[in-house]
Amino acid sequence: MTGARQGGVSGTVKQIITEEGWVGFTRGVGPRVLHSACFSALGYFAFETARLAILNQYIRRKELTQQMQESGVDVGVAST
């Protein structure tokens, strides 16, 4: 904390590298990358699942509307 106040980010980085070396500077990167990868995968999965659910619902409604039109039923499309 004192390094951040005295020399900013670059001063803090220099202090860490001087005291602990590159190993100390990169400590904790592995778990952070793993966490970020899992979080990104969950977000992608949720987006794709929602997209497919909406697409399937749209296709079903479109097919139902076409079937009703072909059978001569008056289809009034209500905007919701």
Automatic annotation (TrEMBL):
SUPFAM superfamilies for the chain: Mitochondrial carrier
Solcar repeats: 1-53
A Gene Ontology term for the protein's cellular component: membrane
Alphabetized UniProt keyword annotations: Membrane, Transmembrane, Transport
Membrane topology: Multi-pass membrane protein
Subcellular location: Membrane
Gene3D superfamilies from the UniProt entry: Mitochondrial carrier domain
Family indicated by similarity: Belongs to the mitochondrial carrier (TC 2.A.29) family.
Protein name (record): Uncharacterized protein
